[in-house]
Structure formats: C-alpha cells, structure tokens
Amino acid sequence: MIFGCCRWAELVSYFLQHNNLRRMAFLHILLSILGTISWATEVDTLAPPVDIYWNRTNDIFLRSNNDHIVQVQIKERIRFICPFYTDSTTDRDDTEHYIIYRLPKRFYDSCHIPNVSESQLRNQYGIEKVHNCSTPYNQTEFISFIDPFLALPGIYGGLSYVSGREYFFTSISTGPLSGINNRESTHSACKRYNMKAIVRVCCNDNSTFTCPAEAVKCNQTAGISNFQLALHQSSLCNTIMLAIFYWIYQL
Predict the structure, then answer these.
(1) Among 9, 135, 148, 247, whose Cα sits 20 to 30 Å from the Cα of 173?
(2) pTM for the predicted model, two decimal places
(3) How far apart are CA 67 and CA 145, in angstroms?
C-alpha cells in the first residue's frame, strides 16, 4: 500500500509547479521518506540488480557495440562495481581508480566537467558524484535504486529517476590514483577508454524506449496516464494522500 501511495508522483510534480518553495521542500522530503519505506519493505523481493563493472577492460565500453546502454524499469536496481584486485602485491600504480559521475549529456559527450567544487557541480551544472572507486584491494560497489522519490543523500543511493528519461554516467578520472580527480577531457577514461553508460528508464512495462538524447519525456501524456492509474490504488491510500495535500496547501 505504501508503494501505491508513492505512485502519486505525477500529481505531486504538477502540484509543486504551482506552490512555493516551502511546500516543494516539504513534499520532496515526504515523498523521499515514503519511497524509502517502500523500498525497505520490498527490497528482499526485488529482482537481482543490473551489474555494471566499472573497469576499462569491460566489453560494454567497446565503441563497436551499444552494450553501454542499459534499459531498466522503475523499481529495478543498477549496481556499479568498482575495480577489485585480489592480489595485494599488484602495484598500486597498475590498479584503476575512478570517480563515477551522473551528468548532463553535454558533459557526457565532451568528457570533461568544470573545475569547481562538488556543491557547485551539483547545484549549478547538475553533475552528481555517484561513487568513488579508490580502494582497489577492497571490493566496493554502489547500488542505485530506480525510483523517482529516493533523492535524499545516503538513502539507497540518493539519486532519483523519472520514467521516460535517460541518464548519463561516466568517469573523467585518468585511471591511476594520481589522476582520480582529473577534470579535463584529453586523458580521461571517458575519452580514452569510452567508459560511459546510459541508463534508460522505460515509460511503462510494455513500452519501447523512444526518449530523445537530452532526457525529455518521451510521452507528454505519460504523467496523466500514471496519475489515472494512481487513482485506482487503495482508497485508504488515496484518502491519506489527499488529506496531506490539503494540509500542505493550507500552510
């Protein structure tokens, strides 16, 4: 039932466009919490995540194929797996180190990011630091839940996704530890090894993804149909959500 409540996403996004920042912030936090509770109650029953091994020898990064394009549905998961070396005698200079970013397409294509602080990257340029692969002798990974609500830092990845859009991931790092914070294109893993991934979130379970490259909605009426589906959820759930909306509107 909780997840049914969270299916009110399209109505909420419309609602937010017509209200002030305080209400927007409140609803964002509320829905993030509801989404988190939903994942917490269902995580044991989810299908295995889609794995992306983030190292330069992975065949999905070959320029001769499109295996770097990953198509997923809402409520699925993607797991980014960092380079891992079981033999600690391997020279550290021969190991791979990367920072994975989710970023707008123009930076994905150019393989560079501005040389500013992380907060500026996020707030001014829409570039989000996903994970730091800097411990090659310890196996580390990052799991991103495909959900429109889970955007609170530290909660199941802290990245939100919207159905009918695509998201771009890459590393500007050069490979060695000394180049993990590189921001320039020339020697980046993005440029040299084509270490890029596109995550496409399908509009519904039966759709063929047709979204344009700049991550706009593939179907402007998708939100309406999702809202109509939401109306058929549990009557108790709907009553609760409507009560919350009315209360916020009175703030």
Answers:
(1) 148
(2) 0.67
(3) 20
